[in-house]
Amino acid sequence: MTTAYNPSNNFELKVGDVEYRRAPTRALMARVYQPQGDGPFPALLDLHGGAWNNQDRKANSAMDERIAASGVLVVAIDLTLAPEAPYPASVQDGNYGIRWLKAKSREWKGDPATVGALGSSSGGHVIELCAMRPRDPHYTAHPLPEAPDIEATLAYVATRSPVSDPYARYLNAEKLGRVEMVQNSKTYFNPWETIHEGNPQEILDRKEPVTLPPLLIMQGELDDNVLPTVQEKFANSYRAAGGECQFEIFAGSEHQWVREPGPQTDRAIEMVKTFIARQLRAQRLAA
Prior knowledge:
The chain has 9 helices and 8 strands. By secondary structure, it is an alpha/beta fold. It has one domain (13-286): 3-Layer(aba) Sandwich (Rossmann fold), CATH 3.40.50. Strands 1-2-4-3-5-6-7-8 form an 8-stranded mixed sheet, sandwiched between helices. α2 (89-104) packs across α3 (122-132). The relative contact order is 0.14.
């Protein structure tokens, strides 16, 4: 049985990198933040942002460390970048990463039954697709021979500034004349029509069959990259489709506010920890 999770706990951490998948162009690495205690601990997969085109597993290290120190096995993974391979390559990494973490978590005193996920910006887009389509053959392309029966379902999903409607973000970037952001979208969604196929908002609009784990969306009030109105529409659509969605606005905050220490960053970290605790409690009561 999983150790009862208390967000106020403070464990020492062991942090190290391991290879989780060998991609055609490079080894994809995972950074493991392991609480030093008896466990078993709940487990969390973190997917980085970077407009699908940059960054790696270290992008969210400050938040990962503080969540892990509260008694969560946190594993942050590299994703295939758009110049290496377009959509759905990074979503395939995310799907594989969920299954891989479930298979490996006991080695780090984690509980595979509790695996949830955290995604930031474009990583939020990727994890929303993973969560909504855990069995989609487009996404399950990478086999896990040592655990072929494990599925990529998630206990919950927490996000910060997720790109829940990539087409709306593209149109906004085009309107604002953000040439690099426009090109990032075109590099990732190639062929271009996949920006609609792999679009969480449009998936709900089309009423496709989906899996809807409890979802937390943390959104900056001043974000002009992912607009708060677009995010609120997705939250409402998620609820209308039957999912639980906690939508929180962070006053005075832009797209990447958690990169800087401060009250709103502290609030975001505490909110994720509280959200995890609530989902684990609900999971125990349902068992």
